[in-house]
Prior knowledge:
By secondary structure, chain A is mainly α.
Amino acid sequence: MTTSKLFIDYFMQYVKTRLQYRSDFFVQMVTDIMFQTVNLVFILVVFNHTTHLSSWSREEVIFIYGYFLVPFSIFAAFFNLWEFNERYIIKGELDRVLTRPVHSLFQVMMETMTPESLSGALTGMAVMGWASWEMDLQFHWYDPLLFLLFALGGAAIYGGLYIMLTSISLFSDSKTDIQPIMYNVGNYGRYPIDIYNKVIQIVLTWLMPFAFVGFYPASFLLHDDRWLTFAMLTPVMGFLWFALGIMVWNLGIKNYRGAGS
Amino acid sequence: MLSIEARGLTKDFKIVQSREGMKGAFRDLFDRKYRTIRAVDEIDLGIQSGEIVGYIGENGAGKSTTIKMLTGILQPTAGELKVNGFDPHREREQFVRTIGVVFGQRSQLWWDLAVRESFRLLKKLYGIPDEKYHAHLDRLTEVLEMGPLLEQPVRKLSLGQRMRCELAAALLHQPSLLFLDEPTIGLDVLVKENIRRFLKQINQEYGTTILLTTHDLSDIEALCHRVVMLDKGTIIYDGGLTELSRQWGGGPRLYLELEEEWDLTTLQGFTKDITAEWQHVGDRCYRVLLTGDNPSVSEVLSRVVPHASVKEIRIEEATTEDIVRRIYQEGVPNA
């Protein structure tokens, strides 16, 4: 309760800060719209050249890709932890965060969020809409609800994983390059999993569970029941990975050594 | 009531010891050698609520590490610690509601927000009720003269203006204990004085306990009745400021310029029944250190004047700075 209230407060402050730089705000908005439009056109053009991917039709591949953008942009909006090491560890802002009576990770997330990244979700839904219109896909009444649940679960999986990677900075302040690598691996979740060999399938399901962010739930929404169990596991996996992320973070805070004097 | 209670408080840091050269760097990759550095070494500290205590020490003496343990930022390696009745690190979220923190070198406010907005967000973070918040903010605004600053973004404030806002931010939730780490660093004399006056005022008005670290000993002189001195992670002095100067500073110093050159032993002979130590500092210039219980300048003079004619007299009181410098240079004499 207090957390959601605080979220709104932080969000309002964020908007106020953005509005302060008026020209910057408009420029940003125009850039965002342009970026998403280019992204949309790019997806359609690229996929128009491939007819199908193994047993998957072009529209289905596009649909999965569009779905992936939704959890991914939720993740990108609220887990913008790329500069954590630089800003919070080296510059020492974590010291300030730790003297405030709210969970440290929540504060860091709120201070670094970029809600405008959510516009990517709109692009994703537009792509999904176009693909399902082309395929003449019919949805059940519960599909939108599950879609929301899946998207949040996927974002939580991504979030948990990145929280863990970010927590490395709490144990050692040397820079690691795992984050960009993981970021690239994340892209594999947006393609049908049966195009990969067995080992990669296992890795993408259990070790770096990106298939839950893209493919599994999307296949369910495409009414393909072969991965039904996995699709339904998405929220559970989201919860587990997010909880794991928080555990590692808390352990890291215990280990935190503080910024130099 | 004790506000801070520490027993055997210790903090170790593990540091990777890197080897020399390219070959060493490769060896480091596989076989790391760690060295443990003890930043704070089993200190005992008890601070009563309502006290203003100065915490001093050279760079690297362990001041900041102690403060970070007391504020819950760092977990102690060993020892017992209770601050305001809490274990600062384990019960952090509840504990920090009862303290205020100002780090002079680092802003506690949000850089891009107007001061008022920063305060408002803090109000939400601490869950301060509206009425209490407005009343208290009005009071702080008046005392710290922040009226014209409230609508400006923090990044546009001068250092002195920012520091006043930082203080207000740390006090919004009316903590009973205030930590100040170098609160007057880089400020001009006037602002320093204002801030000291303000700190004294809140100490008297609300009974706020204050622990401050500083390099500027005039802060300590102006504010603290008690100083805790830290060196290499251990407390080397804990007591009153006046006792400190009596114990180590000695009495005043007397500078004399005489009409002619005198032999030191002869001069020493004039004052052999009082504890005065003569030193030759220049042409016909002498310094007399007055130590012991009741050194008196007039007594020295009354013994010298019958023999030698005095051209000029200057008396210097030992400052806290001198005393502290001497302690660091000469180490702790029979402490």
